[in-house]
Amino acid sequence: MKFFCTILLLMAIATITYAQGTAPVIPLYTDGVPNSKPIPATYIEKNGDGHASAVSVPTLIPFFPEKGKATGTAVIICPGGGYSGLAIDKEGYAVAKEFNKIGITAFVLKYRLPSDLIMVDKTIGPLQDAQVAIMIIRKNAGAWGVDPAKVGIMGFSAGGHLASTVGTHFDKAVVDNKDNISVRPDFMLLLYPVISFGEFANKGSRNNLVGLIPTPEQIEFYSNEKQVTANTPPTFIVQAGDDKTVAVQNSLLFYEALLKNKVKAEMHLYQAGGHGFGLNNPTSKEHWLDWCISWMDTNGF
């Protein structure tokens, strides 16, 4: 009964969204957050200056296209921030609005940031939230005008690590999945992504997710270039060659693994632009979103 009521609630949210053109926040969990500890009084979510931190109640923020424009494709957007914060405006809301212009439904994922203060196992917290996001969208695909076979995931920087983890670790759900809904995304869009936890790791992201002294097994498990298989979703990648925060080898290694496994993939490397440029690389007149849209169209998304 509780599950049925939850579905009705989410369908009601969808109806309000279409009727009013607004985007009510959708809680990921209605019956307690899994893998959680009691939240300390000092652990207070902060939102300001385009960033969010100390997220303990994860949500989806939906952006629906104008009625009649929807293509059926949906994208879950994971903002970056080193697994310590979320650049939710620049790498979330701004991107979602651009997708809406071409009829793509977008959901910005405000995911929990790994923390021993609020999680039993912080290494799986963000992945749990991303998998649940996919499940919610597929459950409500009909009400939201979404094709359940065209649900992709997108990530920037550490959000790219989360997105690529979702795309390479979908064979085992880390959340309750009684309905056996696929948590495999249909495609991945990765922007200056953290991929590897080995030689070319962004140490801040790695430390925040798996701790200062990760085991060799953890490094292997979360080095997503080593987890690619022939069933990994088609992938689009963008990065700048002069990125000093996340080494460009992260993208190169992942692209090489995709090619090796014959996964459809396209990669664009700007010669300059650094890290965290969001929608627009200030050193170039070319817009990666145009390339991305063309790639999605070519692949039927």
Description:
With 301 residues, this protein is of the alpha/beta class. It contains nine helices and ten strands. It has helices spanning 2-20, 89-101, 125-139, 141-144, 158-168, 203-210, 216-221, 249-260, 288-298; strands spanning 26-27, 46-48, 51-53, 59-63, 74-78, 105-110, 151-156, 188-191, 235-240, 265-270. The strands form two sheets. An eight-stranded mixed β-sheet has the order 1-4-6-5-7-8-9-10, sandwiched between helices. Helix 3 (125-139) packs across helix 5 (158-168). The protein starts with a helix and ends with a helix.
**Spatial strand arrangement across the major sheet:** 1-4-6-5-7-8-9-10
Number of strands: 10
Content of β-strand:
15-25%
Q: Whole-number radius of gyration?
A: 18 Å
Succession of helices and strands:
HEEEEEHEHHEHEHHEHEH
Q: Tags for this entry?
A:
disordered N terminus
Describe the SSE topology.
Blueprint: H1 2-20, E1 26-27, E2 46-48, E3 51-53, E4 59-63, E5 74-78, H2 89-101, E6 105-110, H3 125-139, H4 141-144, E7 151-156, H5 158-168, E8 188-191, H6 203-210, H7 216-221, E9 235-240, H8 249-260, E10 265-270, H9 288-298
Parallel strand pairs: 5-6, 5-7, 7-8, 8-9, 9-10
Antiparallel strand pairs: 1-4, 2-3, 4-6
Helix pairs in contact: 3-5
